[in-house]
Amino acid sequence: STACRVGELLHMRKSDVFLDGTHPHAVVRGKGGKVRVVYLTEATVRHLRSHIDEFCRFEGDGHLFWSRNEV
After folding, report:
1. DSSP assigned state of 2
2. Interatomic CA distance for residues 14 and 70, integer angstroms
3. Which of 36, 38, 58, 69 makes a 20 to 30 Å CA pair with 16?
4. pLDDT digits (tens, 9 = 90+) for 19-55
5. Helix-strand-coil percent breakdown of the chain, rounded to 5?
6. With the C-alpha atoms ordered 8, 35, 49, 24, is the resulting torsion angle positive or negative?
């Protein structure tokens, strides 16, 4: 469980995710601009790596996820 809202996930950027090291985590910006750290499980890290390899090959700091609907 990531404890993140869909809107928070859709606003995450590549630079918000830290998959290496002993404590993989993501920086999440929530309601009211509050920032918090969400620690990631090994399974989540594997899925995120796969997603980034397949869908986020772009240069720079773009969004990790997309939606046809605005959030």
Report:
1. -
2. 19
3. 69
4. 998 999 999 998 888 999 999 999 999 999 999 988 8
5. 35, 20, 45
6. negative
Other CB atoms within a 10 A radius of the CB of residue 38 amount to 18
- Indicate the pLDDT class of residue 71, thresholds 50, 70 and 90: low
**Which distant-in-sequence residues (6+ apart) come within 8 Å of 37 by Cβ?**
25, 26, 27, 28
Both structure tokens of 41:
């499980």
Global pTM value: 0.80
Our CA angle for 30, 59, 2, nearest 5°, is: 30
Contact 11, 29 (CB under 8 A): yes
How far, in Å, CA of 67 to CA of 4, rounded?
16
